[in-house]
Amino acid sequence: NAGVTQTPKFQVLKTGQSMTLQCAQDMNHNSMYWYRQDPGMGLRLIYYSASEGTTDKGEVPNGYNVSRLNKREFSLRLESAAPSQTCVYFCDSSGQGYEQYFGPGTRLTVT
Amino acid sequence: TQLLEQSPQFLSIQEGENLTVYCNSSSVFSSLQWYRQEPGEGPVLLVTVVTGGEVKKLKRLTFQFGDARKDSSLHITAAQPGDTGLYLCAGGRDDYKLSFGAGTTVTVRA
To answer: How near does any CA of chain A get to the CA of B32, in Å?
Structure first.
């Protein structure tokens, strides 16, 4: 039981490049989330998926797209990376009640 | 603008001392969660409080939810170096989305 896994752990991109951040959970959870963490700002919700086949925008969706591939996997895509997207990205999943499980994060630098 | 304001932003204390972290908002939440995050890792859920006035204890940690469900506090008794980390509060609403505070960095010196 690995919980929530994220790949890659680190990534450096040049401005304008694209990439996809992968997230998978093995807890059979319905809800999955993508957050970004910037220094001094806590976590801000980018997109979430309440169940397989549905996605909705969060607080800061601009510049990102998501895909809920199946119940296990929720990916985040940056089509044209910008320096403002330099931060740490966390995937989160939750099942019944208030349990939340975060992945270890992807640290992205855009130069 | 943060929906949840945490204070203080930084806290450095000696081992054995007590500390309190505050989380305040003008909004009402259906639940309030506290997390601890260590460098290079994701946040780990410590507790969820859902009832106004609720108090929960987790060993040396005491969590309180305000009567009006707008604020919360985390109190650590006899802090240890292992308590060092970033403490985050997060408010939940009926749509199960969370709003996070900016965090309090706690350092406990041996």
So the answer is: 10
Torsion of CA B48, B51, B53, B59, to 10 degrees: -30
Q: Which residues of A touch B90 (CB under 8 A)?
A: 43
Dihedral angle of Cα A109, A62, A24, B84, to the nearest 10 degrees? 60
* Residue A45 at interface with chain B, using a CB cutoff of 8 Å: yes
Whole-number pLDDT of residue B1 = 60
Answer whether A67's CB lies under 8 Å from A74's CB: yes
CA–CA min distance A87, chain B (Å):
12
Q: What is the pLDDT of residues B31-81, one digit of tens each?
A: 999 999 999 999 999 999 999 999 999 999 999 999 999 999 999 999 999
From B85, B42, B100, B36, select the one nearest A105 (Cα to Cα): B42
pLDDT at B91: 93
Please enumerate, as own/partner, the contacts of B48-57 that have beta carbons within 8 Å and a separation of 24 or more: B48/A98, B50/A98
Encoded tokens for B59: 């060993």
Beta carbons within 10 angstroms of residue A92's beta carbon: 24
